[in-house]
Amino acid sequence: MTHPIAASKEVKVARKRIKEIGVEISDLNAQKQRIQADITRRNNQIRKLKDRLKELEGVELTATDHAILRYLERVQGLDLDEIRKEMITDSLKKQVEVLGGTGKFPGPNNTRFIMDNKRIVSVVPA
């Protein structure tokens, strides 16, 4: 049988060691959280770089709709004000006055104007 004084000393040592190991575990968990955050941050950097590579490698020479419109206007001589007058007829103005400025309205040549707050935002087949 173990002597009571020796057992008491062993209990103190065991409790002290448990506390020390607990502190070590806490430190390791803190390190683990920092490492996991770093891994997440680096994975996000890799994902962003891969996305950017896809953008750069997949870029073809193109022209935006806005650039094409400006080309037609400034190089080909297309008169946008004339087209605007063609689209915004007295009939359309009356319909908007009665029905409001948002919705679908008949346009020329079997089309419909899509309108939002009194602005024609698109033209679609009727």
Outline the structure in words.
Strands 1-2-3 form a 3-stranded antiparallel sheet, with helices on one face. It folds into 2 domains: 1-61; 80-125, no CATH class. It is elongated, with a radius of gyration of 37 Å. The protein has 4 helices and 3 strands; from the N terminus they run H-H-H-H-E-E-E. The chain is α+β, with helices and mostly antiparallel strands.
Q: What percent strand? A: 5-15%
- The amount of helix comes to 55-70%
Q: Radius of gyration over alpha carbons?
A: 37 Å
**Tell me, what's the shape?**
elongated
Mean pLDDT level: 93
Quaternary status of these chains? Answer: single chain
The ordered string of helix (H) and strand (E) elements is HHHHEEE
Separation, N- and C-terminal Cα atoms = 100 Å
Strand order of the largest sheet: 1-2-3
Give the beta-strand count.
3
State the domain count: 2
Structural class: alpha+beta
Instruction: Summarize the biggest pleated sheet.
Output: 3 strands, antiparallel
Give me the number of helical elements: 4
